[in-house]
């Protein structure tokens, strides 16, 4: 039988406002602390993945951004293939017992084609969107009954932060307590409609691969940083509660302060590692100072910076303050692409601004991505696979 069954899902990037850094179990991707993130709009950042299964396929295959990947070399990937096929096999067994047998897709090889609309491994949470789309597309193909929370446990095993991309809006990854990781999952704090005024601008400082991959960086920090131990044992439990409350209360000033100090502490832990890990550069530090200048001149906190494991700045703000936040940024960065998404923003500068930081920012940023809070994975009619051959569309 030469039928090729397929489904496509798009999945979002999420940017943590309270960072996940450090694993208590490397194999299961179990974190040392709970974390919180904002899911960003797929209009601007997304992964598209088509999952297909057929009896004519000879083996499982995966293509990422046009390049075939070696599945067998990735323990995480082989685990996800195995676990998802096992879930489908149970669905098939149950349907057969009910007298309504399904096509035995669990026994067919899978072909997966995935594409990002943004650079991979550049500190823009590509693995989070990628693994979330991978799990969601196969779950759709297999018609699995598992909830988003249950699927997030699988996605977590591919990439820790991927579990948060199974939801839109504002998301918590609860670290859990069980040794097998069965309670380490993502949950929704609030949907995107709870605080739709939340906006973000990403200052793309570098689209290159980062020097220290997140996985090895985490292990280095866990082994060598004393500050990290204080963070996970003393700081994170309280901060997790406080940040959830700030989101539910829509208290931007509190949300912003917690977001910035958590980013600072995360990077301090990286610096406290030995050898030290550097994800920020001069342009990143200039972005921090620019946000501080914007807040100082506004005489209140209207912008919040955060940095994942990379130099790119993500700046959160509310729609009502858009011109006060983006205007100064645009004045320094009007020469880079990305402003077409915010055509009404007027450039302006203020004499009180410390120009040194704006000049450094202007030299170091290559692109801006203007975005906002967005939804979780979405079904799509797009197909990335040739439904006659099972190969990626050229």
Helix content: 25-40%
Largest sheet: 6 strands, mixed
Q: What is the molecular shape?
A: globular
Per DSSP E runs of 2 or more residues, the count of β-strands stands at 16
Helix and strand element order: EEEEEEEEHEHHEEEHHHHEEHHEE
SSE class: alpha+beta
- Average per-residue pLDDT, rounded, comes to 94
Distance between the ends: 25 Å
Radius of gyration using CA atoms only: 22 Å
Strand residue content = 15-25%
Strand order, biggest sheet? 8-7-9-6-1-16
Helical stretch count? 9
Low-confidence stretches: none
How would you portray this structure in words?
The chain is α+β, with helices and mostly antiparallel strands and 394 residues long. The protein is built from nine helices and 16 strands. Strands 8-7-9-6-1-16 form a six-stranded mixed β-sheet. The chain has a four-stranded antiparallel β-sheet with strand order 2-5-10-11. Helix 1 packs parallel to helix 2, helix 2 crosses helix 3 and helix 5 (226-248) packs antiparallel against helix 6 (252-272). The relative contact order is 0.18.
């Amino acid at each position: 039988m030469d039928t090729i069954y397929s489904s496509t899902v798009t999945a979002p990037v999420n940017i943590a406002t309270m960072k996940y850094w450090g694993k208590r179990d490397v194999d299961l991707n179990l974190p040392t602390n709970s974390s919180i993130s904002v899911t960003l709009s797929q209009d601007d950042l997304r992964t598209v993945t088509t999952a297909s299964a057929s009896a004519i396929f000879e083996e499982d295959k995966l293509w990422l951004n046009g390049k075939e990947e070696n599945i067998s070399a990735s323990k995480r990937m082989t685990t996800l293939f195995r676990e998802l096929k096992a879930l489908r096999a149970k669905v098939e067994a149950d349907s057969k017992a009910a007298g309504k047998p399904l096509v035995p897709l669990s026994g067919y090889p899978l072909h997966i084609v995935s594409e990002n609309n943004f650079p991979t491994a550049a500190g823009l949470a590509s693995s989070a969107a990628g693994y979330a789309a991978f799990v969601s597309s196969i779950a759709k193909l297999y018609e699995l009954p598992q909830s988003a929370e249950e699927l997030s446990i699988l996605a977590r095993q591919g990439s820790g932060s991927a579990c948060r991309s199974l939801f839109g809006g504002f998301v918590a990854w609860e670290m859990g307590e069980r040794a097998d990781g069965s309670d380490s999952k993502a949950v929704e704090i609030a949907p995107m409609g709870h605080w739709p005024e939340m906006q973000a601008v990403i200052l793309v400082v570098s689209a290159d691969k980062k020097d220290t991959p997140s996985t090895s960086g985490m292990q280095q920090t866990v082994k060598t940083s004393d500050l990290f131990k204080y963070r996970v044992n003393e700081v994170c439990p309280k901060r997790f509660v406080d940040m959830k409350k700030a989101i539910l209360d829509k208290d931007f000033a509190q949300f912003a302060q917690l977001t910035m100090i958590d980013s600072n502490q995360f990077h301090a832990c990286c610096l406290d590692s030995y050898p030290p890990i550097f994800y920020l550069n001069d342009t990143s530090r200039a972005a921090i100072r620019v946000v501080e200048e914007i807040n100082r001149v506004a005489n209140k906190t209207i912008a919040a910076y955060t940095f994942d494991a990379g130099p790119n700045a993500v700046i959160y703000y509310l729609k009502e303050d858009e011109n006060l936040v983006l205007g100064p940024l645009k004045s320094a960065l009007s020469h880079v692409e990305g402003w077409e998404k915010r055509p009404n923003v007027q450039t302006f500068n203020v004499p009180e601004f410390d120009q040194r930081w704006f000049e450094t920012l202007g030299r170091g940023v290559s692109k801006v991505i203007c975005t906002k809070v967005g939804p979780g994975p979405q079904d799509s009619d797009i197909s990335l696979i040739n439904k006659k051959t099972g190969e990626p569309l050229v």
